[in-house]
Amino acid sequence: MANAQNSAILLIGANSVQPDSPPHSLAGIVSFSAPCILMVLHFSVGSKTSVPKNYQHVLSLVFAVKEINENPKILTNISLGFHIYDSFTDARVTQQNTLKLLSGSKRMVPNFNCDQQSNLIAVIGGLDPDFSVQMATLLDLYKIPQIAYCAFAPVINIKTQLPSFYRMVPNEAYQFKGITQLLLHFQWKWVGIVTADDEVGETFGQTLMKMLYQQGICTAFHEKTPVMSHTFQMVNSYEFIRIKAKFINNSNVKVLVVYAELHTRAWLILYFYIHSFLEGIPVMPIGKVWIMTAQWDFSLESMQRNIDIQVFDGAFSFAIHSNEVPEFSKFLQCLHPNSEKGDDFIRLFWEKAFGCFFSDSQISESNDFLISDSNDHCTGQEKLDQLPGLMFEMSMTGQSYSIYNAVHATAHALHKMHTFRSRLGTMMDRVRFGPADFHAWQLHPTLRSFSFNNSIGDTVFFDENRELGAGFDITNWVTFPNQSFLRVKVGRMDPQALPGQEFIINGEAITWHSMFNQALPIAICNDNCYPGNSRKKKEGEPFCCYDCIPCPDGKISDRKDADDCFKCPEHQFPNRNKDQCLPRSLNFLSFQEPLGITLTVLALFFSLLTALVLGVFIKNKDTPIVKANNRDLTYSLLLTLSLCFLCSLLFMGQPQRATCYLRQTAFGLIFSVAVSCVLAKTFTVVLAFMATKPGSRMRKWVGKKIAISVLSGCSLIQVAICAVWLCTAPPFPDVDMHSLAQEIIVECNEGSVLMLLCVLGYLGFLALVSFTVAFQVRKLPDSFNEAKFITFSMLVFCSVWLSFIPAYLSTKGKSMVAVEIFSILASSAGLLGCIFSPKCYIIILRPDLNSKDQLMKRK
Description:
This protein is an alpha/beta fold.
């Protein structure tokens, strides 16, 4: 009975089980004193020479029938009975037994019911989806409900093609979603899939791979195992086993999702057994995280007793939601191999589970290589709770719980229909209906619409797809060296839960494989790309395999495995590691910083120095050297230069609307007045020289008129330009977010660049004219020829501003402002020093030269 698949069939009849029931019948366990409803379990055991752990499925059916028959609140005066059929994991046998069931006798008579006392109402079966469909195809012709507990539906469309087919398991879509959520929860992005090499396995693999791809999870491989019939043909193919063993064992994939139906389970166990034999060593922990589907269970038969199940330590499996049924353990403890009449399974189970034999055993002399020799006699006093979980479990498994609920569902549906008919019969003054009045097709409306609470309080109902309206438990398997294990519920996939709470996992309750040292396993194709890098797909590899590329300048990534780097918001900038955005500071020339303090001190110093020079000139206003070349122009020039130094302060501090208005316009006007004064002084020198010639008509121009005319005329032109600028496109405060990576430049937007160029261009024109005129008359004879000093001062002035242009264009932010302030101070200091330092030297240090006689001598 290797790796038995359980298929259950509920049969409704008028009396108890027939004496000539099929082999392995459990007839006679329930006694009947009233009309009964007969239930039949179709149970696939395969071979008599091995013991299925799934024998518990039979016992769960017996327990459920016993529980219902002893309950006076349900199906009063009606008892339940059952049949057990053996399909031997063979499709032909399954079909034959189904036809026998429909015929109502041991003899198969298609389309005839030879047992008129037996009225088949419903069927429970089975664990294998293919066998379930084979039975459903026949049962559906008679509209007999079949409640299967196969974990996955077959490939065909059950809802439309088999309208009488029900499943006491949730929709597999929830299991797909649960597997995906489990992988995402632990950030496992590199997984392998193992399925059987058949149509159902292919459908499972393709569906799961599609869902994983949508969630960014890569499938490293999809390994297909041979089906059962082919597996045993390959037992002697050592090379085949060796190749498969090395592939899984040496793969860098740490997480394997296994479609754990019969064939795949058998192949995995065979793989570990043969691999251990070939290598000549015990099976070593291979350090994998196994994620099994709901069909998974530890069930090792005789040939597999020596397998080290710790290979599967820390595995996860999805299980049909179940709860502990306390009375079931007590029921199992009361079992005895000699107490159950009609149960041919229990003695066979007893011998193989406890490694003993009864004196009248039919298999004690078998020479089957799968059976371990034993000379021990079975006493019947052996205890089921002493068996390891690999052979038998005292707690109800998920499949047994489904059978238990299937029996109760059918009984409650019958009870509801029987109660309704009894009430209807009372209202019509007719006799109450009995079991013979029930027909299979009449059970469908009740099954599709009802719900009930079983004995432990779980709500059971079928959804619109005729599937169990429940979810899956997530079980963590903890194994021990003595081949015992624990099932630990660590989570659940519950579609009925509130949004956001469908998937729940308790990480603290999980036990990982010993090779992981109880740390969370990592399942990725390559190392994570840490913040500051982005992923670049490797050519020819799945999308989960990638290289890590540092983020380019100006971009960051602030999480692992970022697909791309992104720019920081405008008010922030990337840090050095390019994994975080930092706030950008404001960039402007402040009065508090060292550069601002230095320039402020220089501006105030030169302004004060100019004021002192003006004071010296005013004090010595009647001396010849002060009176020379129009002292009013000298006073005006000194006053203007003092303002030139002070106007540089407008460029410091955070730009405001008022300072932006005044910066360039004040600079342009003041410097235009200063250069106009220099130009007027130059013209004065020229006119004075020309007026000394006999008969010259220029004498009438000598005086204040020409100086005032030049000064006012040149200045008014600049005033007009500035007025047009301020009226059309005045400057305003602005910010530059792009020039500097880590700072925001707070600046004055000049409004109209053309008008700024006009202001500067006109100022440059005045300087060039002044320099040209002064250069032409620098050698004219005079008592104190100021033209040579004006020439040198204008040369300094023009040099400063010519060098200012490239420096200004190559800098940004406060550095650019500092360059302009420095140019203002340097050019103003050049005018002050070149024109007035020689005069101050004579006035202060050589007053003896500041006389008319000395000037005449020099002339």
